[in-house]
Amino acid sequence: KLGTYASQAVNTFDGVTYAGSEGGVGSNESLQIDAPGNVFGDVHSGPGFTPNVNPSAHVSGEIGSLAEPIDLTPIPVPIVLPGLAYNVPNNATKTITPGTYHFPAVTQGKFSKLRIIGPATLVWDSYMTGVSATLEVDCTNGPITIYDTGMWKVDKNYKVGPAPGTPLDAAFLISSVGTVQFNQGSQIGVGFYAPNSRIQVDQGAEVWG
């Protein structure tokens, strides 16, 4: 509603351009910010833990511990009859049209693009990509929700975000236990909610959702 992100990114720190300082990071347990990490907001670990922030990292706001844990609501995964596995080959582009789907496995090859057009509800039992895979969501006509109930493994330079010029109303809801890792060079432009998993953001990755 306020225009493009670029038109609002009027602040700079150490060569990084950003719009505001509401990008807080929190955890119910331990929390670690390595260099050269930048957090334009507050950093709070769980009760009884102290955030481990590298002296060369930057936190614009408060650093401290939560008074009590944040209640993470379980994810109610919709019941959808499973179909076939879905694969996007190397260097290929595929499109999932509006609807409700259950794929036992979704894989993207290197340099592939998967386009999803909303409104869409998708249940994936696992998701894996090769290097430089892109997931593009188009929420022009409705929201997109992806439920991942199993493996999550994306390679470096992974990109997920809105189609150019389209509004964003999309999220990954990950109910599995494990690690949700955004590898080096990844650009994450949708929301992620993974109440049972650890989240790891590697060096050079950007999270905007």
Helix percent reads: under 10%
* Strand fraction: 35-45%
Structural class label: mainly beta
The overall pLDDT average reads 94
Tell me the radius of gyration: 18 Å
Specify the number of helices.
Answer: 1
Number of strands: 24
Any low-confidence stretches, pLDDT <50, length ≥5? none
Largest sheet composition: 7 strands, parallel
Shape annotation: globular
Order of helices and strands: HEEEEEEEEEEEEEEEEEEEEEEEE
Distance between the ends: 16 Å
What characteristics describe this protein?
1 helix, seven-stranded parallel β-sheet, 209 residues, globular, six-stranded parallel β-sheet, mainly beta, 24 strands
How would you describe this protein?
With 209 residues, this protein is mainly beta. 2% of the residues lie in helices and 44% in strands. Strands 10, 12, 13, 15, 17, 19 and 22 form a seven-stranded parallel beta sheet that branches. Strands 11-14-16-18-21-24 form a six-stranded parallel beta sheet, with no helix packed on it. Strand 1 and strand 2 form a beta hairpin. It is globular.
